[in-house]
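[Q] Does anyone have a clean structure-token version of this?
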Amino acid sequence: MMLKNCRFIITQDDERTILENKDLKINEETKTIEEIGVELAKEPSEKIIDCSTHVVMPGLVNPHIHLFTFQLREHIVNSWNELWNKARELERNILKLRTSWNKALSLIATLGFTTIAPTEICYDKFQENINTFIEIIGGPFIFNKPDRMLGKIVHVSSILNIGPELFKELVDEAFKKNITVSIHISNTRNEVFEFKKKYGKFPIEYLDSIGALRENVTLIGLEWVTSWELKKIASNNCKVILIPSCSMLYALGGLPPIIEFIGEKITLGLGTCSFTCNSPFIFYEGKALLYYIRTSYWSFKLTAQQVLDIITLGNTRILNIKGGTITEGEPANLTIINLKHDNLAPVSMKNIVQNLILYSEPYNIEFTVVRGRLCSPRKNIFRKSF
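[A] Here you go.
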């Protein structure tokens, strides 16, 4: 398959090269990008996709999304704790969970994602229900001690729910099995000071003291992390997922020190978290992040390019998967955006990244390529591919 005469190819390579009017050839057998160039040779039976009005970018990845929370939109939820209390109630209703998964995946499938990492309460039941062309990397969402380890990721609701010692056991066991453990942590002031009152230290500080911070740990939120805890996150090679819409909607009040995270070279990702917070369109969340940081820091230190780096390079590193760049030999996971709509105009090589972050809409997504296979997200919802 060949993507012919792509208007722009956002490579996200080390130089952040943007190519213009180039062909991109995909090897459907190896599921990789075979060649990028001008007037590439065409095989007689090769499928040709005219991309002269399209931008091709690394496939969009969502490293943290709660599909089951789609059903929680029926409630008016007015606090962070209330959100998770409703989630625990939903855990017991398999019929509602399945309805939520179906509706959530129908929406997700239209938004240009090639890979998602859903945090599903009953992962074994969820697996039976997967019927979409998006690659899914998931695992159970734990409110208490798990019966067994499932999936590539284990998600923990709160350090207060599970307790730090049990969390350490979970992290150590997961490390042996090459499983990532992600946890919502230091999200509210009450949580942080309740933890400090009980354990004598702030959450990240305490986890470090008992050896529960490891490179397979991903920390989510961190709205109330301290400056000295930030250093411990960096020294233990932990990763961080930012959730700005949830932070703002649920009045969490704190601010993840994102500029300082970047300064410490901590791997950052961006997730859409709960369906009650926002549409899960990752560019909406990217724009929210940019506004969130600029208004809080009173500066332009965070750029649209850095946001795109978090969405592409950061999110693939969070999930420990290949991708995030468009280079020969890399997996052919791509998101293809149509530039014909006026909301992205005027567009040039100079402003394409800015315009995608600030102005793109779900209807701009026209195709995805997932494992070398072309998908039309709005037409192929729930087509079994994997």
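[Q] Thanks! Anything notable?
[A] The chain has 13 helices and 18 strands.
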